[in-house]
Amino acid sequence: MNIDKFKHQHVEILNGIEELRRLARQGIAQSARTIAARVVSLSSVVRLHLAVEDRVLYPSVEATGDERLKSMSRSYQEEMDGIATAYLSFAARWHTAPQIEKDPEGFRASANVVLKQVFERMQRENREFYPAIEAAAVPA
């Protein structure tokens, strides 16, 4: 299976997280409008990535005869449910400048938890899951 599109989306998501971190360091309240726009933009990529994983990646891996890979895929999918729910809640709360301006420290605390989970998950997929899929030559 060619997973280049998934890898590219990871790069977009990781870049989006880094951009939010940079903006937060500049000042959350002062950057609220740009932060809100970046949260909306990042959410588009995250939603697309989650949908394609659910519709293409996980079913393709599930269809293989490789029990180790199938088990890994199920584990990743189950774990992602919680991370996705947390991220989507984060995005729903922090997608407008007034909400961010009203509670910049709340945004910071929430972002530190949720974006760290997303970041760490992406890194694990890049390091473990995607190489395992490529090594097994999973058909699309």
Q: What distinguishing features does this structure have?
A:
5 helices; single chain; 140 residues; elongated; mainly alpha
Q: Proportion of β residues?
A: under 5%
Tell me the count of domains: 1
**What percent of the residues sit in helical stretches (DSSP H or I)?**
over 70%
The rough form would be described as elongated
Structural class label: mainly alpha
**Which segments are poorly predicted (pLDDT under 50) over 5 or more consecutive residues?**
none
Mean pLDDT: 94
Q: List the total number of helices.
A: 5
From the alpha carbons, calculate the radius of gyration and give it in angstroms: 16 Å
Major sheet summary line: none
The rounded distance between the terminal residues' Cα atoms is 5 Å
Q: Helix-strand pattern, N to C? A: HHHHH
The total count of strands amounts to 0
